[in-house]
Automatic annotation (TrEMBL):
One example GO MF annotation: ATP binding
Keywords: ATP-binding, Kinase, Membrane, Nucleotide-binding, Transferase
DAGKc domain segment(s): 140-287
Location in the cell: Endomembrane system
PROSITE patterns: DAGK
Descriptive protein name: sphingosine kinase
Signal peptide: none
Protein origin, superkingdom: Eukaryota
Pfam families: DAGK_cat
Source organism: Hymenochirus boettgeri
GO biological process, one term: negative regulation of apoptotic process
GO CC annotation: cytoplasm; endomembrane system; membrane
EC identifiers of the protein: 2.7.1.91
InterPro entries the record matches: ATP-NAD_kinase_N, Diacylglycerol_kinase_cat_dom, Lipid_Phosphate_FormReg, NAD/diacylglycerol_kinase_sf
Length: 527
Protein backbone atom coordinates (compact mmCIF):
# COMPACT_ATOMS: atom_id res chain seq x y z
CA UNK A 1 0.00 0.00 0.00
CA UNK A 2 2.97 2.09 0.74
CA UNK A 3 4.35 4.44 -1.87
CA UNK A 4 2.09 7.51 -1.91
CA UNK A 5 2.52 8.70 1.64
CA UNK A 6 0.23 11.40 2.89
CA UNK A 7 1.11 14.17 5.29
CA UNK A 8 -1.22 14.55 8.31
CA UNK A 9 -4.54 16.16 7.38
CA UNK A 10 -6.72 18.63 9.21
CA UNK A 11 -9.79 16.66 10.44
CA UNK A 12 -11.87 19.61 9.22
CA UNK A 13 -11.15 18.38 5.67
CA UNK A 14 -12.71 14.95 6.35
CA UNK A 15 -15.93 14.22 4.49
CA UNK A 16 -16.29 10.59 5.57
CA UNK A 17 -14.26 8.27 7.79
CA UNK A 18 -14.78 4.66 8.84
CA UNK A 19 -12.90 1.39 9.32
CA UNK A 20 -12.95 -1.41 6.75
CA UNK A 21 -11.17 -4.65 6.04
CA UNK A 22 -9.42 -5.33 2.77
CA UNK A 23 -10.78 -7.82 0.21
CA UNK A 24 -9.28 -10.38 -0.12
CA UNK A 25 -8.76 -10.30 3.65
CA UNK A 26 -5.09 -10.10 4.62
CA UNK A 27 -5.79 -9.48 8.30
CA UNK A 28 -5.43 -5.72 8.06
CA UNK A 29 -7.87 -3.26 9.55
CA UNK A 30 -8.02 -0.08 7.50
CA UNK A 31 -8.96 3.41 8.47
CA UNK A 32 -10.42 5.14 5.39
CA UNK A 33 -10.79 8.91 5.20
CA UNK A 34 -12.39 10.70 2.28
CA UNK A 35 -11.46 14.34 1.65
CA UNK A 36 -12.40 16.53 -1.31
CA UNK A 37 -9.20 15.55 -3.16
CA UNK A 38 -8.18 12.10 -1.94
CA UNK A 39 -8.95 8.80 -0.33
CA UNK A 40 -6.59 8.22 2.60
CA UNK A 41 -5.88 4.69 3.80
CA UNK A 42 -4.05 3.66 6.96
CA UNK A 43 -3.51 0.14 8.28
CA UNK A 44 -4.42 0.28 11.98
CA UNK A 45 -2.81 -3.10 12.71
CA UNK A 46 0.70 -1.83 11.93
CA UNK A 47 3.03 0.05 14.24
CA UNK A 48 1.84 3.69 14.18
CA UNK A 49 5.49 4.83 14.09
CA UNK A 50 6.22 3.15 10.77
CA UNK A 51 2.65 2.89 9.57
CA UNK A 52 2.16 5.64 7.03
CA UNK A 53 -1.10 6.95 5.63
CA UNK A 54 -1.42 6.44 1.86
CA UNK A 55 -3.08 8.96 -0.39
CA UNK A 56 -5.05 8.05 -3.52
CA UNK A 57 -5.94 11.10 -5.57
CA UNK A 58 -9.58 11.24 -6.65
CA UNK A 59 -8.39 12.86 -9.89
CA UNK A 60 -6.87 9.42 -10.67
CA UNK A 61 -10.08 7.52 -9.86
CA UNK A 62 -12.07 6.23 -12.84
CA UNK A 63 -14.93 4.60 -10.98
CA UNK A 64 -16.29 2.98 -7.86
CA UNK A 65 -19.26 0.78 -7.06
CA UNK A 66 -20.86 -0.85 -4.01
CA UNK A 67 -22.26 -4.36 -3.67
CA UNK A 68 -23.50 -7.00 -1.22
CA UNK A 69 -21.83 -10.31 -0.45
CA UNK A 70 -22.53 -13.14 -2.90
CA UNK A 71 -24.15 -15.28 -0.27
CA UNK A 72 -27.07 -14.16 1.91
CA UNK A 73 -25.24 -15.27 5.08
CA UNK A 74 -22.54 -12.69 4.34
CA UNK A 75 -23.70 -9.56 6.17
CA UNK A 76 -20.89 -7.38 4.82
CA UNK A 77 -21.20 -4.34 2.61
CA UNK A 78 -18.51 -3.98 -0.07
CA UNK A 79 -17.17 -1.28 -2.32
CA UNK A 80 -14.51 -1.18 -5.01
CA UNK A 81 -12.64 1.94 -6.17
CA UNK A 82 -10.40 1.86 -9.26
CA UNK A 83 -7.51 4.30 -9.73
CA UNK A 84 -5.01 4.85 -12.52
CA UNK A 85 -2.18 6.67 -10.72
CA UNK A 86 1.07 7.56 -12.45
CA UNK A 87 3.73 5.06 -11.49
CA UNK A 88 7.35 4.66 -12.31
CA UNK A 89 7.97 1.93 -14.89
CA UNK A 90 11.13 -0.17 -15.41
CA UNK A 91 12.47 2.51 -17.76
CA UNK A 92 12.08 5.18 -15.10
CA UNK A 93 9.22 6.78 -17.03
CA UNK A 94 5.87 7.42 -15.44
CA UNK A 95 2.74 5.97 -16.88
CA UNK A 96 -0.74 5.18 -15.61
CA UNK A 97 -1.24 1.77 -14.03
CA UNK A 98 -4.45 0.25 -12.77
CA UNK A 99 -4.98 -0.12 -9.04
CA UNK A 100 -8.22 -1.62 -7.76
CA UNK A 101 -9.16 -1.60 -4.07
CA UNK A 102 -12.08 -3.50 -2.55
CA UNK A 103 -13.16 -2.78 1.04
CA UNK A 104 -15.63 -4.55 3.35
CA UNK A 105 -17.51 -3.45 6.43
CA UNK A 106 -19.62 -5.41 8.89
CA UNK A 107 -20.18 -2.78 11.55
CA UNK A 108 -23.80 -3.92 11.96
CA UNK A 109 -25.66 -7.25 12.18
CA UNK A 110 -28.08 -5.84 9.59
CA UNK A 111 -26.97 -6.47 6.01
CA UNK A 112 -28.93 -3.44 4.74
CA UNK A 113 -27.19 -1.10 7.15
CA UNK A 114 -23.78 -2.35 6.01
CA UNK A 115 -24.79 -1.97 2.38
CA UNK A 116 -26.17 1.54 2.95
CA UNK A 117 -22.88 2.60 4.50
CA UNK A 118 -20.80 1.46 1.51
CA UNK A 119 -23.33 3.01 -0.87
CA UNK A 120 -22.95 6.37 0.85
CA UNK A 121 -19.18 6.04 0.35
CA UNK A 122 -19.43 5.28 -3.37
CA UNK A 123 -21.94 8.10 -3.91
CA UNK A 124 -19.70 10.60 -2.15
CA UNK A 125 -16.54 9.37 -3.91
CA UNK A 126 -18.30 9.60 -7.31
CA UNK A 127 -19.41 13.14 -6.53
CA UNK A 128 -15.89 14.16 -5.47
CA UNK A 129 -14.41 12.49 -8.57
CA UNK A 130 -16.76 14.50 -10.80
CA UNK A 131 -15.60 17.66 -9.04
CA UNK A 132 -11.96 16.76 -9.71
CA UNK A 133 -12.31 15.77 -13.33
CA UNK A 134 -13.18 17.54 -16.54
CA UNK A 135 -16.46 15.92 -17.51
CA UNK A 136 -17.17 15.93 -21.23
CA UNK A 137 -20.91 16.20 -20.77
CA UNK A 138 -22.86 17.47 -17.77
CA UNK A 139 -21.95 15.57 -14.60
CA UNK A 140 -23.33 12.06 -14.31
CA UNK A 141 -25.06 12.07 -17.70
CA UNK A 142 -24.03 8.97 -19.64
CA UNK A 143 -21.32 9.47 -22.23
CA UNK A 144 -21.61 7.75 -25.57
CA UNK A 145 -18.50 6.97 -27.57
CA UNK A 146 -18.27 5.68 -31.12
CA UNK A 147 -14.98 3.77 -31.28
CA UNK A 148 -13.51 3.24 -34.76
CA UNK A 149 -10.72 0.66 -34.66
CA UNK A 150 -8.40 -0.44 -37.45
CA UNK A 151 -7.44 -4.07 -36.65
CA UNK A 152 -4.50 -3.94 -39.10
CA UNK A 153 -2.90 -0.79 -37.72
CA UNK A 154 0.65 -1.05 -36.41
CA UNK A 155 1.56 -4.58 -35.37
CA UNK A 156 -2.08 -5.73 -35.71
CA UNK A 157 -2.82 -5.88 -31.97
CA UNK A 158 -5.24 -2.96 -31.70
CA UNK A 159 -8.33 -5.11 -31.11
CA UNK A 160 -6.81 -7.29 -28.39
CA UNK A 161 -5.29 -4.21 -26.72
CA UNK A 162 -8.66 -2.49 -26.81
CA UNK A 163 -10.17 -5.47 -24.99
CA UNK A 164 -7.44 -5.72 -22.35
CA UNK A 165 -6.54 -2.08 -21.73
CA UNK A 166 -9.40 0.14 -22.87
CA UNK A 167 -12.62 -1.77 -22.19
CA UNK A 168 -12.03 -2.17 -18.44
CA UNK A 169 -11.54 1.57 -17.98
CA UNK A 170 -14.58 2.45 -20.13
CA UNK A 171 -16.69 0.02 -18.14
CA UNK A 172 -15.44 1.38 -14.82
CA UNK A 173 -16.34 4.89 -16.04
CA UNK A 174 -19.80 3.59 -17.07
CA UNK A 175 -19.29 4.94 -20.57
CA UNK A 176 -21.62 3.62 -23.26
CA UNK A 177 -19.69 2.81 -26.39
CA UNK A 178 -20.12 1.14 -29.75
CA UNK A 179 -17.07 -0.51 -31.26
CA UNK A 180 -16.79 -0.51 -35.04
CA UNK A 181 -13.88 -2.52 -36.39
CA UNK A 182 -13.02 -1.19 -39.85
CA UNK A 183 -12.95 -3.72 -42.68
CA UNK A 184 -11.35 -1.58 -45.35
CA UNK A 185 -9.66 1.73 -46.08
CA UNK A 186 -12.10 4.69 -46.29
CA UNK A 187 -14.89 2.95 -44.37
CA UNK A 188 -14.48 5.36 -41.44
CA UNK A 189 -14.31 8.32 -43.84
CA UNK A 190 -17.62 7.32 -45.48
CA UNK A 191 -19.29 6.61 -42.15
CA UNK A 192 -18.55 9.98 -40.59
CA UNK A 193 -19.38 11.71 -43.88
CA UNK A 194 -22.77 10.04 -44.34
CA UNK A 195 -24.20 8.91 -41.00
CA UNK A 196 -26.17 10.73 -38.32
CA UNK A 197 -23.58 11.36 -35.61
CA UNK A 198 -25.92 12.96 -33.08
CA UNK A 199 -26.07 9.75 -31.04
CA UNK A 200 -22.39 10.07 -30.12
CA UNK A 201 -20.70 12.51 -27.79
CA UNK A 202 -17.19 11.56 -28.90
CA UNK A 203 -15.70 9.81 -31.94
CA UNK A 204 -12.78 7.75 -30.69
CA UNK A 205 -10.15 6.52 -33.12
CA UNK A 206 -8.04 3.53 -32.10
CA UNK A 207 -5.41 3.18 -34.80
CA UNK A 208 -2.48 5.16 -36.12
CA UNK A 209 -2.83 8.68 -37.44
CA UNK A 210 -4.20 7.48 -40.80
CA UNK A 211 -7.65 6.63 -39.45
CA UNK A 212 -7.94 10.03 -37.73
CA UNK A 213 -7.09 11.62 -41.09
CA UNK A 214 -10.05 9.75 -42.60
CA UNK A 215 -12.38 10.89 -39.80
CA UNK A 216 -11.44 14.59 -39.95
CA UNK A 217 -11.73 14.71 -43.72
CA UNK A 218 -15.01 12.79 -43.58
CA UNK A 219 -16.44 15.34 -41.10
CA UNK A 220 -15.40 18.16 -43.43
CA UNK A 221 -17.32 16.59 -46.32
CA UNK A 222 -20.66 16.78 -44.51
CA UNK A 223 -23.36 19.29 -45.33
CA UNK A 224 -23.39 20.32 -41.66
CA UNK A 225 -19.60 20.59 -41.55
CA UNK A 226 -19.56 23.77 -39.48
CA UNK A 227 -21.23 21.82 -36.66
CA UNK A 228 -19.74 18.38 -37.32
CA UNK A 229 -16.13 19.58 -37.42
CA UNK A 230 -16.65 20.54 -33.74
CA UNK A 231 -17.58 16.97 -32.81
CA UNK A 232 -15.16 15.99 -30.02
CA UNK A 233 -12.62 13.44 -31.23
CA UNK A 234 -10.24 11.27 -29.24
CA UNK A 235 -7.24 9.15 -30.15
CA UNK A 236 -6.05 5.86 -28.71
CA UNK A 237 -2.69 4.66 -30.05
CA UNK A 238 -3.01 1.46 -32.10
CA UNK A 239 -0.66 2.21 -34.99
CA UNK A 240 3.07 2.35 -35.42
CA UNK A 241 3.55 6.13 -35.49
CA UNK A 242 0.90 7.38 -33.01
CA UNK A 243 2.09 10.96 -33.26
CA UNK A 244 -1.17 12.60 -32.18
CA UNK A 245 -1.52 10.24 -29.20
CA UNK A 246 2.08 10.98 -28.15
CA UNK A 247 1.46 14.72 -28.48
CA UNK A 248 -1.66 14.63 -26.28
CA UNK A 249 0.22 12.52 -23.74
CA UNK A 250 2.90 15.21 -23.72
CA UNK A 251 0.40 18.09 -23.43
CA UNK A 252 -1.15 16.42 -20.38
CA UNK A 253 2.25 16.63 -18.68
CA UNK A 254 3.17 12.93 -18.85
CA UNK A 255 6.60 11.59 -19.76
CA UNK A 256 7.19 10.16 -23.24
CA UNK A 257 6.15 6.50 -23.36
CA UNK A 258 5.20 4.09 -26.12
CA UNK A 259 3.12 0.93 -26.62
CA UNK A 260 0.56 -0.08 -24.01
CA UNK A 261 1.89 2.51 -21.55
CA UNK A 262 0.93 5.24 -23.99
CA UNK A 263 -2.38 3.45 -24.52
CA UNK A 264 -3.11 3.48 -20.77
CA UNK A 265 -2.29 7.19 -20.57
CA UNK A 266 -4.46 8.01 -23.60
CA UNK A 267 -7.39 5.93 -22.33
CA UNK A 268 -7.18 7.92 -19.11
CA UNK A 269 -7.19 11.16 -21.13
CA UNK A 270 -10.25 9.89 -23.02
CA UNK A 271 -12.10 9.08 -19.79
CA UNK A 272 -11.15 12.17 -17.78
CA UNK A 273 -10.36 14.82 -20.40
CA UNK A 274 -12.45 17.57 -21.92
CA UNK A 275 -12.91 18.80 -25.50
CA UNK A 276 -10.15 21.25 -26.38
CA UNK A 277 -9.48 23.26 -29.56
CA UNK A 278 -7.57 21.36 -32.23
CA UNK A 279 -5.74 23.36 -34.91
CA UNK A 280 -6.31 22.09 -38.44
CA UNK A 281 -4.33 23.00 -41.53
CA UNK A 282 -6.27 23.38 -44.73
CA UNK A 283 -4.23 22.19 -47.71
CA UNK A 284 -4.97 22.97 -51.33
CA UNK A 285 -3.16 21.13 -54.11
CA UNK A 286 -2.60 22.06 -57.75
CA UNK A 287 -4.76 19.04 -58.62
CA UNK A 288 -7.57 20.98 -56.89
CA UNK A 289 -7.83 18.76 -53.81
CA UNK A 290 -8.76 20.23 -50.47
CA UNK A 291 -7.48 18.27 -47.45
CA UNK A 292 -7.65 18.97 -43.73
CA UNK A 293 -4.60 17.95 -41.74
CA UNK A 294 -4.19 17.76 -37.96
CA UNK A 295 -0.55 16.71 -37.69
CA UNK A 296 1.94 17.25 -40.50
CA UNK A 297 2.76 17.79 -44.11
CA UNK A 298 6.02 16.47 -45.41
CA UNK A 299 8.09 16.09 -48.58
CA UNK A 300 11.47 14.39 -48.94
CA UNK A 301 13.30 12.28 -46.39
CA UNK A 302 10.57 12.04 -43.73
CA UNK A 303 7.75 11.11 -46.10
CA UNK A 304 10.07 8.70 -47.95
CA UNK A 305 10.81 6.95 -44.65
CA UNK A 306 7.15 6.94 -43.64
CA UNK A 307 5.99 5.29 -46.84
CA UNK A 308 9.02 3.11 -47.62
CA UNK A 309 9.13 1.65 -44.10
CA UNK A 310 5.57 0.28 -44.48
CA UNK A 311 7.15 -3.10 -45.21
CA UNK A 312 8.60 -3.18 -41.67
CA UNK A 313 5.18 -2.44 -40.15
CA UNK A 314 5.25 -5.66 -38.07
CA UNK A 315 8.15 -4.10 -36.08
CA UNK A 316 6.02 -1.26 -34.74
CA UNK A 317 7.72 2.12 -34.24
CA UNK A 318 11.21 0.63 -34.88
CA UNK A 319 10.25 0.72 -38.56
CA UNK A 320 10.96 4.47 -38.67
CA UNK A 321 14.51 4.06 -37.29
CA UNK A 322 15.30 1.30 -39.78
CA UNK A 323 13.71 3.27 -42.62
CA UNK A 324 15.74 6.36 -41.67
CA UNK A 325 19.06 4.48 -41.69
CA UNK A 326 18.23 2.87 -45.05
CA UNK A 327 17.31 6.22 -46.60
CA UNK A 328 20.37 8.00 -45.15
CA UNK A 329 22.58 5.64 -47.15
CA UNK A 330 20.75 6.64 -50.34
CA UNK A 331 19.99 10.33 -49.84
CA UNK A 332 17.86 12.05 -52.45
CA UNK A 333 17.31 15.74 -52.89
CA UNK A 334 14.18 17.34 -54.30
CA UNK A 335 14.02 20.51 -56.37
CA UNK A 336 11.34 23.02 -55.57
CA UNK A 337 10.38 26.45 -54.33
CA UNK A 338 9.45 26.88 -50.63
CA UNK A 339 7.64 30.01 -49.42
CA UNK A 340 6.03 30.82 -46.10
CA UNK A 341 4.29 33.43 -44.04
CA UNK A 342 6.25 33.86 -40.78
CA UNK A 343 4.04 33.51 -37.69
CA UNK A 344 4.89 37.07 -36.54
CA UNK A 345 3.45 38.65 -39.68
CA UNK A 346 0.06 37.16 -39.11
CA UNK A 347 -0.04 37.46 -35.32
CA UNK A 348 -2.85 40.02 -35.50
CA UNK A 349 -4.99 37.56 -37.37
CA UNK A 350 -4.00 34.81 -34.95
CA UNK A 351 -4.76 36.70 -31.73
CA UNK A 352 -7.73 35.76 -29.59
CA UNK A 353 -9.03 32.33 -28.83
CA UNK A 354 -10.60 30.44 -31.68
CA UNK A 355 -10.78 31.84 -35.19
CA UNK A 356 -14.01 31.97 -37.17
CA UNK A 357 -13.38 29.97 -40.31
CA UNK A 358 -16.56 28.79 -41.88
CA UNK A 359 -18.48 31.36 -43.81
CA UNK A 360 -21.89 30.88 -45.32
CA UNK A 361 -21.83 30.55 -49.08
CA UNK A 362 -22.06 32.35 -51.44
CA UNK A 363 -18.91 34.38 -50.80
CA UNK A 364 -16.98 36.09 -53.52
CA UNK A 365 -13.39 35.98 -52.25
CA UNK A 366 -11.06 34.22 -54.67
CA UNK A 367 -9.45 32.48 -51.69
CA UNK A 368 -12.54 30.57 -50.78
CA UNK A 369 -12.19 27.08 -52.02
CA UNK A 370 -15.31 24.97 -52.04
CA UNK A 371 -14.60 22.30 -49.50
CA UNK A 372 -14.61 19.52 -52.04
CA UNK A 373 -15.61 18.63 -55.54
CA UNK A 374 -18.39 16.46 -54.07
CA UNK A 375 -19.83 19.41 -52.22
CA UNK A 376 -23.59 19.74 -52.64
CA UNK A 377 -23.31 23.49 -53.11
CA UNK A 378 -25.36 25.12 -50.35
CA UNK A 379 -23.22 24.28 -47.34
CA UNK A 380 -20.40 26.19 -45.70
CA UNK A 381 -17.01 26.92 -47.16
CA UNK A 382 -13.70 27.10 -45.38
CA UNK A 383 -12.03 30.42 -45.99
CA UNK A 384 -8.23 30.46 -46.38
CA UNK A 385 -7.76 34.17 -45.76
CA UNK A 386 -3.93 33.99 -45.80
CA UNK A 387 -3.65 32.33 -49.21
CA UNK A 388 -3.93 33.50 -52.80
CA UNK A 389 -4.76 31.01 -55.56
CA UNK A 390 -1.91 28.62 -56.39
CA UNK A 391 -1.56 29.96 -59.95
CA UNK A 392 -0.65 33.42 -58.58
CA UNK A 393 2.69 34.39 -56.97
CA UNK A 394 2.75 34.33 -53.17
CA UNK A 395 1.99 37.75 -51.55
CA UNK A 396 4.97 40.11 -51.27
CA UNK A 397 5.10 39.94 -47.44
CA UNK A 398 5.79 36.19 -47.62
CA UNK A 399 9.36 34.82 -47.49
CA UNK A 400 10.73 32.59 -50.25
CA UNK A 401 13.70 30.36 -49.37
CA UNK A 402 16.62 31.22 -51.72
CA UNK A 403 17.78 27.59 -52.05
CA UNK A 404 15.76 25.24 -54.22
CA UNK A 405 17.20 21.78 -53.49
CA UNK A 406 15.85 20.14 -50.33
CA UNK A 407 16.53 16.92 -48.46
CA UNK A 408 13.44 17.34 -46.35
CA UNK A 409 10.59 19.75 -45.76
CA UNK A 410 8.38 19.16 -42.74
CA UNK A 411 5.45 21.19 -41.46
CA UNK A 412 4.35 20.01 -38.04
CA UNK A 413 1.55 21.36 -35.83
CA UNK A 414 1.83 18.96 -32.87
CA UNK A 415 4.81 18.25 -30.60
CA UNK A 416 5.45 14.69 -31.78
CA UNK A 417 6.02 13.16 -35.19
CA UNK A 418 5.92 9.66 -33.72
CA UNK A 419 5.57 8.14 -30.26
CA UNK A 420 9.33 8.53 -29.75
CA UNK A 421 9.97 11.44 -32.13
CA UNK A 422 9.73 14.66 -30.13
CA UNK A 423 10.25 16.75 -33.24
CA UNK A 424 8.69 20.05 -32.15
CA UNK A 425 9.58 20.69 -28.49
CA UNK A 426 8.44 24.30 -28.85
CA UNK A 427 4.80 23.08 -29.10
CA UNK A 428 3.53 22.85 -25.54
CA UNK A 429 -0.20 22.40 -26.04
CA UNK A 430 -3.17 22.34 -28.34
CA UNK A 431 -4.50 25.37 -30.19
CA UNK A 432 -1.33 27.46 -30.48
CA UNK A 433 -2.26 28.48 -34.03
CA UNK A 434 1.24 27.97 -35.45
CA UNK A 435 2.80 25.61 -38.01
CA UNK A 436 6.41 24.63 -37.24
CA UNK A 437 8.33 24.58 -40.53
CA UNK A 438 11.56 22.57 -40.65
CA UNK A 439 13.66 22.18 -43.77
CA UNK A 440 17.09 20.84 -44.68
CA UNK A 441 18.73 21.98 -47.90
CA UNK A 442 20.83 19.67 -50.06
CA UNK A 443 24.12 20.89 -48.53
CA UNK A 444 23.34 19.15 -45.22
CA UNK A 445 25.73 16.28 -44.44
CA UNK A 446 24.67 12.73 -43.62
CA UNK A 447 26.42 13.12 -40.26
CA UNK A 448 24.24 16.14 -39.42
CA UNK A 449 21.11 14.28 -40.47
CA UNK A 450 22.01 11.29 -38.34
CA UNK A 451 22.68 13.59 -35.37
CA UNK A 452 19.35 15.31 -36.03
CA UNK A 453 17.30 12.11 -35.98
CA UNK A 454 19.12 10.63 -32.98
CA UNK A 455 18.53 13.81 -30.95
CA UNK A 456 14.88 13.96 -31.98
CA UNK A 457 13.86 11.17 -29.60
CA UNK A 458 14.57 13.48 -26.66
CA UNK A 459 13.69 16.70 -28.48
CA UNK A 460 17.25 18.06 -28.12
CA UNK A 461 17.90 18.44 -31.87
CA UNK A 462 17.37 22.20 -31.81
CA UNK A 463 19.65 22.93 -28.87
CA UNK A 464 22.64 23.55 -31.14
CA UNK A 465 22.44 24.90 -34.66
CA UNK A 466 22.76 22.25 -37.37
CA UNK A 467 24.18 23.71 -40.60
CA UNK A 468 21.63 23.75 -43.43
CA UNK A 469 18.77 22.71 -41.15
CA UNK A 470 16.27 25.46 -40.41
CA UNK A 471 13.23 25.97 -38.24
CA UNK A 472 10.67 28.79 -38.73
CA UNK A 473 7.26 29.19 -37.06
CA UNK A 474 4.76 30.04 -39.83
CA UNK A 475 1.04 30.30 -40.34
CA UNK A 476 0.94 29.51 -44.07
CA UNK A 477 3.25 27.94 -46.63
CA UNK A 478 3.56 26.95 -50.26
CA UNK A 479 5.70 24.23 -51.90
CA UNK A 480 6.10 24.21 -55.69
CA UNK A 481 8.12 21.18 -56.85
CA UNK A 482 10.21 21.70 -60.00
CA UNK A 483 9.23 18.17 -61.05
CA UNK A 484 6.62 15.82 -59.62
CA UNK A 485 9.16 13.53 -57.90
CA UNK A 486 9.14 11.98 -54.46
CA UNK A 487 6.40 11.25 -52.00
CA UNK A 488 4.37 13.85 -50.17
CA UNK A 489 2.54 12.86 -47.01
CA UNK A 490 -0.29 14.47 -45.08
CA UNK A 491 -0.55 13.12 -41.52
CA UNK A 492 1.52 10.15 -42.71
CA UNK A 493 -0.79 9.36 -45.66
CA UNK A 494 0.76 9.72 -49.11
CA UNK A 495 -0.54 12.02 -51.83
CA UNK A 496 0.83 12.48 -55.38
CA UNK A 497 3.64 15.04 -55.59
CA UNK A 498 2.30 18.40 -56.81
CA UNK A 499 2.21 22.06 -55.78
CA UNK A 500 0.63 22.47 -52.35
CA UNK A 501 -0.18 25.35 -50.07
CA UNK A 502 -1.79 25.50 -46.69
CA UNK A 503 -2.73 27.66 -43.75
CA UNK A 504 -3.50 27.01 -40.12
CA UNK A 505 -7.06 27.30 -38.79
CA UNK A 506 -6.70 27.78 -35.09
CA UNK A 507 -9.05 25.64 -33.02
CA UNK A 508 -11.20 24.58 -35.96
CA UNK A 509 -11.63 21.05 -34.59
CA UNK A 510 -11.92 19.62 -31.07
CA UNK A 511 -10.16 16.78 -29.33
CA UNK A 512 -10.34 15.31 -25.84
CA UNK A 513 -7.36 16.46 -23.82
CA UNK A 514 -6.21 16.97 -20.25
CA UNK A 515 -4.37 20.29 -20.23
CA UNK A 516 -1.20 20.32 -18.20
CA UNK A 517 -2.05 22.39 -15.15
CA UNK A 518 1.38 24.00 -15.26
CA UNK A 519 0.63 25.42 -18.75
CA UNK A 520 -1.78 28.31 -19.34
CA UNK A 521 -4.98 26.63 -20.50
CA UNK A 522 -6.86 27.65 -23.62
CA UNK A 523 -10.56 27.90 -23.17
CA UNK A 524 -12.67 26.33 -25.87
CA UNK A 525 -15.29 28.95 -26.52
CA UNK A 526 -16.91 27.11 -29.42
CA UNK A 527 -20.05 25.07 -28.99
N1 LIG B 1 -9.64 -2.54 -42.04
C1 LIG B 1 -8.76 -1.89 -42.78
N2 LIG B 1 -8.07 -2.52 -43.74
C2 LIG B 1 -7.14 -1.88 -44.46
N3 LIG B 1 -6.80 -0.58 -44.30
C3 LIG B 1 -7.46 0.10 -43.36
C4 LIG B 1 -8.46 -0.52 -42.55
N4 LIG B 1 -8.92 0.39 -41.69
C5 LIG B 1 -8.26 1.54 -41.94
N5 LIG B 1 -7.38 1.37 -42.95
C6 LIG B 1 -6.41 2.32 -43.50
O1 LIG B 1 -5.09 1.90 -43.12
C7 LIG B 1 -4.20 2.99 -43.17
C8 LIG B 1 -3.21 2.95 -42.04
O2 LIG B 1 -3.89 3.20 -40.84
P1 LIG B 1 -3.26 3.98 -39.65
O3 LIG B 1 -2.42 5.10 -40.10
O4 LIG B 1 -4.36 4.31 -38.74
O5 LIG B 1 -2.33 2.90 -38.98
P2 LIG B 1 -0.76 2.77 -39.08
O6 LIG B 1 -0.30 3.15 -40.43
O7 LIG B 1 -0.38 1.45 -38.56
O8 LIG B 1 -0.32 3.81 -38.03
P3 LIG B 1 0.64 5.04 -38.11
O9 LIG B 1 0.02 6.02 -39.06
O10 LIG B 1 0.68 5.51 -36.71
O11 LIG B 1 1.92 4.48 -38.57
C9 LIG B 1 -5.06 4.24 -43.17
O12 LIG B 1 -4.98 4.83 -44.43
C10 LIG B 1 -6.47 3.72 -42.94
O13 LIG B 1 -7.37 4.45 -43.68
Amino acid sequence: MGENQAAPRDPGEFILSATFTLVPDDGSLLSLILTRRELLIQNLRLDPQTNVMCSHLLADCVGCHSFRGKDSKDLGGYFTAVFYPLKNGMTGRDYRQRESWTFRTEFSQDQDENYNLVRSWTEKISQMVEDQGHPISPPRSPRRFLVLLNPFAGTGKALSQFETHVMPMLEEMKVRYTLLVTERRNQAYELVRDEDLSGWDVIVVMSGDGLMYEVINGLMERQDRNVSIKKPLAILPGGSGNALAASLNHYSGQTQVTGTKLLNNCTFILCKGRPSPLDLVSLTTSSNRRILSFLSFSWGLISDVDVESEKYRFMGSVRFSIGTFVRLTMLRSYGGCLSYLPARSSSVQQKGTVDAHLLSAPHNSTNNVQNSHTDKGEAQILEDSLLVPLDQPVPSHWTTVPENQFILILLLYQSHLGADLYAAPMVSGLGEGVIQLFYATSSISRKSLLKLFLAMEKGTHLEEPIPHFNHVPVTAFRIEPLEATGIMTVDGESIPCCSVQGQIHRGLGRIINIPNESQPSRVDTSK
